[in-house]
UniProtKB/TrEMBL annotation, chain A:
Domain of life: Bacteria
Segments passing through the bilayer: 7-28, 48-77, 89-109, 157-174, 253-270, 290-309
Primary subcellular site in the record, as a coarse category: membrane
PANTHER family attached to this UniProt entry: GUANOSINE ABC TRANSPORTER PERMEASE PROTEIN NUPQ (PTHR43370:SF1), SUGAR ABC TRANSPORTER INTEGRAL MEMBRANE PROTEIN-RELATED (PTHR43370)
Keyword terms: Cell membrane, Membrane, Transmembrane, Transmembrane helix
Identification of the protein by name: ABC transporter permease
Localization per record: Cell inner membrane
Lineage: Bacteria, Pseudomonadati, Pseudomonadota, Gammaproteobacteria, Oceanospirillales
Organism: Marinomonas phaeophyticola
Mode of membrane association: Multi-pass membrane protein
Automatic annotation (TrEMBL), chain B:
Native source species: Marinomonas phaeophyticola
Entry-linked Pfam families: BPD_transp_2
Keywords per UniProt: Cell membrane, Membrane, Transmembrane, Transmembrane helix
Cellular location(s): Cell inner membrane
Keyword Aminoacyl-tRNA synthetase: no
Residues in the signal sequence: none
Protein name (database record): ABC transporter permease
CDD domains linked to this entry: TM_PBP1_transp_TpRbsC_like (cd06580)
Membrane disposition: Multi-pass membrane protein
Membrane-traversing stretches: 12-35, 55-77, 89-106, 112-131, 143-163, 204-223, 251-272, 278-295, 302-318, 330-351
Length: 322, 365
């Protein structure tokens, strides 16, 4: 029983990683006042760029750089539309998701000729699992040994990076001058402008950080979790991350727990397939699959706590000229 | 900036046209980057979509779905709501259509089943939009987020229903049984044959006519009823609507119900018209494509018909293009769709100010 639990938690960590990265990406963007439903597209674009570059150059790290560049590019299009041209944030996000869904397959077929996939990656072209020091030595120690060797050790570098991003985000958002201004611009851009700080430049920086983190999430999907790019491989992760962002009420640590919860549900759903519970019978997998969405709707409806986003989110800032 | 001095044709025709052309121009660059000739590609596209009777039939068949979802998005847009859940509403609406067909196909004639299916599709689609609408109106939960969530819930629900309840016994594939022929919407080539009009076979069916009727209905509703006036007021200025005595939450709910009902009609075309059974993923992204159609059609039924036919042509021509040039996938159509959303939607202000400024200066001079 204990071992099963550890295995489920181990899977939870792997499944949660892209959610954490993408949700933190969304956090930076939305805290600055830019709604981002284009997380999905940026993850997918990052995944494709990472797999394509890793296949060509044979290095997962080069793939990672390309993933971030591609994702930043998409983020800048979003910024250009929403910040510079005061476009609708939702429409722009939908546009990016749609363009990426089509473009990845189109380019993939043209470059690799494998029906839109990229070649299977192996060796240095992938991020492989790291074994933490002494993991094998302590594996036999009861309880702690299993937790250390199974749960904490044996993940790839991006998993650890994602978890490290949470305190980092917390520090940037709450403890730095940039973070203070970022929060301010999402609540009251007029005040920020009055203080002589450029609203547009701040928001552009937030959007670029969002791009970097989505690129990491994408690279994780195609070069760490899987061994190559598949059509539509982001499979709604960007939207679950968005749900986790709302569920965590736009705060880094609660967002982490929301991602872990949604990842846990995903890991459980895989295990529950065809399993009959005593007294309840077989729970359909779909019922567990929809829980993240149902929980988010319930939260939004105000039935479990209250989700209040940044005040100026989604509204274009028009500088007044006297 | 003085809006009054900008000629009407500039804001309703010239600027949208330039934005769409920009989207096509960037699409051409993408095709060029793939090492193919965009002019040649456009030639195949146009021939595939309009070059022969069957192609035109397919184009209009795709357009039928897009008119339904385009109208759905635009009705909500007019009231200032973004219904991104057309995909889920179409899916559940299709369930409604399918259930009507499964229940009545052996007992009732088509003349009775068809109206029932229309009601079924509308009711189910509207029901799926009701919860997000209610939450937006009464509890202030953002309709965009809730409708996204409902898309995913719809997709899981349909998998569950098809796999566990509607699947035929002893078959592996998650499809319902095929309906009796009395629940098939007539194909256009069958429908027009008695009038001496010979068409080649295509999936185009009677639901296309219903789509056109819906356009007239939406046009009348939005611009020629008191209720449509309330809807437009809510969309233009929600605060002013309150002062004018309009019950914003009530209007919000009704708008979303109509929007969901319209999206639900996709099932008439796909389930009752073509597939003749309930199956997975028949909505195939039409709900999202409806956003592009509605943006390009400037939220007006006439514009939506034009945009739907154009996108229908892209779908149909895209398959022709992929057949003629194997290095290009039909997915290129999705790219073009996305670019249209980007340029006609998100970047609509990019050139607007400059072009309007030009005409204002000209009229002042």
């Amino acid at each position: 029983m204990f071992e099963t639990l550890i295995l489920i938690l181990d899977a939870t960590m792997r499944v949660s990683t892209p959610l954490i990265l993408a949700a933190l990406a969304g956090l930076f963007s939305e805290r600055s006042g830019i709604v981002d439903i284009g997380l999905e597209g940026k993850i997918l674009g990052g995944a494709f760029a990472a797999a394509a570059a890793a296949a060509v150059f044979g290095s997962a790290w080069i793939g990672l750089i390309f993933a971030m560049l591609a994702s930043i590019g998409l983020a800048l299009i979003h910024g250009f539309a929403c910040i510079t041209h005061r476009g609708d944030h939702i429409v722009s996000g939908v546009a990016i998701n749609t363009i990426v869904a089509g473009l990845t397959v189109t380019l993939g077929l043209d470059w690799f000729g494998m029906g839109g996939q990229t070649p299977t990656l192996a060796g240095d072209a992938r991020f492989l699992s790291l074994t933490l020091p002494f993991a094998d030595a302590v594996a036999d120690v009861p309880v702690i040994g299993l937790i250390y060797s199974e749960l904490l050790s044996g993940h790839n570098v991006l998993v650890y990076l994602a978890f490290a991003c949470v305190p980092l985000t917390y520090w940037v958002i709450y403890k730095t001058r940039f973070g203070l201004r970022l929060r301010a611009v999402g609540e009251n851009p007029h005040a920020v402008d009055t203080a002589g700080i450029s609203v547009a430049f701040l928001r552009y920086r937030a959007v670029i950080i969002c791009g970097i983190l989505c690129g990491l999430a994408g690279a994780y999907l195609s070069t760490a979790h899987n061994a190559g790019f598949l059509k539509d491989m982001s499979a709604g992760k960007g939207y679950i991350a968005l749900a986790a962002l709302i569920f965590g009420k736009w705060r880094p640590v609660p967002v982490l727990f929301a991602c872990l919860l949604f990842g846990f549900l995903d890991a459980v759903a895989v295990r529950m397939q065809g399993v009959s519970l005593p007294g309840i019978g077989e729970i359909p997998v779909q019922a567990i699959e929809v829980l993240p969405y149902v929980l988010t709707v319930l939260l939004l409806a105000g039935f479990i706590g209250k989700a209040i986003g940044p005040k100026a989110v989604g509204r274009p800032y028009v500088k007044e000229r006297a | 900036m003085n809006q009054a001095k900008v000629p009407v044709w500039v804001s309703i025709a010239l600027i949208p046209f330039i934005n769409v052309m920009l989207a096509f121009f960037v699409s051409a660059l993408v095709i060029l980057a793939l090492g193919e000739d965009p002019i040649e590609a456009a030639g195949y596209l146009i021939y595939g979509a309009f070059g022969y009777e069957e192609g035109i039939g397919y184009t209009l068949y795709y357009a039928t779905n897009l008119i339904f979802t385009g109208l759905a998005v635009s009705v909500a847009f007019k009231a200032g709501l973004f219904n991104i859940g057309g995909e889920g509403q179409a899916y559940i609406g299709g369930l409604g259509v399918g259930l009507v067909c499964l229940w009545f196909d052996s007992s009732l004639p088509l003349m009775v089943i068809a109206p029932l299916a229309i009601i079924g599709g509308a009711l189910f689609g509207a029901a799926w939009a009701y919860i997000p609408a209610y939450l937006q109106a009464r509890r202030g939960s953002h309709v965009v987020i809730t409708t996204i969530m409902f898309n995913f819930i719809a997709s899981s629900l349909m998998v569950y229903l098809l796999v566990n309840w509607l699947k035929q016994d002893g078959r592996m594939s998650p499809n319902s049984r095929t309906f009796e022929e009395s629940a098939w919407l007539p194909y256009m080539h069958e429908l027009l044959a008695p009038f001496g009009i010979e068409l080649s076979e295509s999936p185009l069916n009677a639901s296309f006519l219903w789509a056109l009727i819906c356009c007239v209905f939406v046009w009348g509703l939005i611009w020629h009823t008191r209720w449509g006036y309330q809807l437009r007021t809510l969309g233009t200025n929600a605060t002013a609507a309150v002062y004018a005595g309009i019950d914003n939450s009530k209007v919000t709910i009704w708008v979303m119900l109509i929007s969901g009902g319209l999206a639900g009609f996709v099932g008439l075309n796909e389930i009752m018209g073509v597939n003749h059974s309930l199956l997975l993923n028949f909505t195939a992204g039409y709900g999202f494509a409806g956003i592009a159609v509605s943006l390009m059609g400037r939220n007006h039924p006439v514009g939506i018909i034009v945009a739907a036919i154009l996108f229908g042509a892209l779908y149909q021509g895209g398959s022709e293009l992929a057949f003629e040039i194997p290095t290009i996938t039909p997915e290129i159509v999705v790219v073009i769709q996305g670019l249209v959303i980007l340029f006609s939607g998100a970047l609509e202000n990019m050139l607007k100010d400059r072009i309007e400024g030009f005409f204002i200066r000209k009229s002042v001079a």
